[in-house]
Write a structure and sequence with these properties.
This protein is an alpha+beta fold. It is 28% helix and 35% strand.
Length: 160
Amino acid sequence: MERNYRQQAWLDSAEALDFLHELTGLARSADELLKLCEAERCTAYIDCGFAVGPVPEDLLFVRKIRGAGHCELLEAGEVALSPSASRSEPLLRVSGHVLVRGMVWVWSDDKASASREEGIWRLDLSHLCRTLYFKPAEIEALAVRLQAGPLANREQRASA
């Protein structure tokens, strides 16, 4: 049974790989997907709404920040495949200190309530393993690039 991945807001790594296979006919591993992200051919995200990060030194009046939803992963402490309680396939997950781009809640000395700001933030995931997510539209764009590129042509000739 095919799932309609286009209708989902976020895909975990197993869903992203299944969608990529559905679009291209080429099987990829989680390691290959990770390498494509490292080569900036696709973007990985984490839900960092739970994470509290250290306050950057240049923000003198900021006392606390907390992630606000999904943020683009720029640097990861550790990325590994780990089992999921709800899925049979292992998922790509990140832990440790991460550098992300996205929205955070910011508390400062001069305001009683938090405000949202976009920026690049270092967050401490500690020992928590957080799942990597992908946008369906970006997986579709990756599929188009893979099908048009020289790597796809070599793989299609080898399977013929």
